[in-house]
Write a structure and sequence with these properties.
The model has no long low-confidence stretch (mean pLDDT 97). This protein has 9 helices and 8 strands. By secondary structure, it is of the alpha/beta class. It has one domain: Metal-dependent hydrolases (TIM Barrel), CATH 3.20.20.140. It has a 5-stranded parallel beta sheet with strand order 4-5-6-7-8. A 3-stranded parallel beta sheet has the order 1-2-3. The chain binds zinc ion. The site of zinc ion (ZN) has 5 residues, from loops.
Length: 254
């Protein structure tokens, strides 16, 4: 059994075949699909999906850094209202994205800090998006790990020194399809990192693993990533499943 710790299965890309896609995931041995929130436009479909698949599709709540624009405080207020209403498995996804748009950098940082405070207040893990911003995110979380902040750097694709710095803070590395990309070199990094620090994810519908690279990604492809991690680390696939599933259960209190 594997857990897909980061999957946007509520997104429009799955409108034509969502039920069949979830069926394929269950058939592929995916016992749970964890859904990171993006913004108020997608919160309702995410929460509906969770209601339709209790115990299988589980919601986080937060504001994605790419959705931090003018009026982001209102978005955050909506997140906070939901947090007060009911329980979630994590805060996220949050973090910083310095790839797409730098014009809201200060606002992204403010939104990140506010979500960190919620993670601490509600004792939830935080799911971090750190595109072109891994070191900046690390600097921010380091201020809060002594207060008990924990979580995962989702879609990790950084260097060995970054991987070590993240795991030294007690954070996990979220490993997805990038591991299967030949030129990424992530296999060389991960073979140096104890498996106790790794959780698996697809980030569907993005970043499909080889041999489906470039196509729509879906949770049923997670075993391709697990298999590659097994090869990279010289570990039996069953061991990869046991350890990474155990890590996900521990981090998200499943
Ligand atoms: Zn995501």
């Amino acid at each position: 059994m594997l857990i897909d710790t980061h999957s946007h299965i509520y997104s429009k890309e799955f409108d034509p075949d969502r039920a069949a896609m979830i069926r394929r995931a269950l058939d592929a041995g995916i016992s749970a699909i964890l859904m990171p929130a993006i913004d108020s436009e997608t919160h309702p479909t995410m929460l509906q999906l969770e209601a339709d698949y209790p115990g299988r599709c589980l919601s986080m709540i937060g504001l994605h850094p790419c959705s931090v624009k003018d009026g982001f405080q209102t978005e955050l207020d909506q997140v906070e209202a939901l947090l007060k209403q009911r329980s979630f498995i994590a805060i996220g996804e949050t973090g910083l994205d310095f790839y797409w748009d730098l014009s809201f950098k200060a606002q992204q940082e403010a939104a990140f800090e506010r979500q960190i405070e919620w993670a601490l207040e509600y004792r939830l893990p935080i799911v971090i998006h750190s595109r072109e911003s891994t070191d900046a995110c690390l600097e921010i979380i380091k201020k809060h790990t002594p207060r008990g902040l924990r979580g995962v750097f989702h879609c990790f694709g950084g260097s060995l020194s970054q991987a070590r710095a993240i795991t030294e803070e007690g954070f996990y590395l979220g490993v997805g399809g990038v591991l299967t990309f030949k030129k990424a070199g992530l296999d060389q990094v991960l073979k140096e990192i104890p498996l106790e620090h790794i959780v698996l994810e697809t980030d569907a519908p993005y970043l499909a693993p080889v041999p489906n690279r470039g196509k729509r990604n879906e949770p049923a492809y997670l075993p391709l990533i697990a298999q590659k991690l097994a090869e990279a680390t010289g570990t039996a696939p069953e061991e990869i499943a046991r350890i990474t599933t155990g890590n996900a259960k521990k981090l998200f209190a499943l």
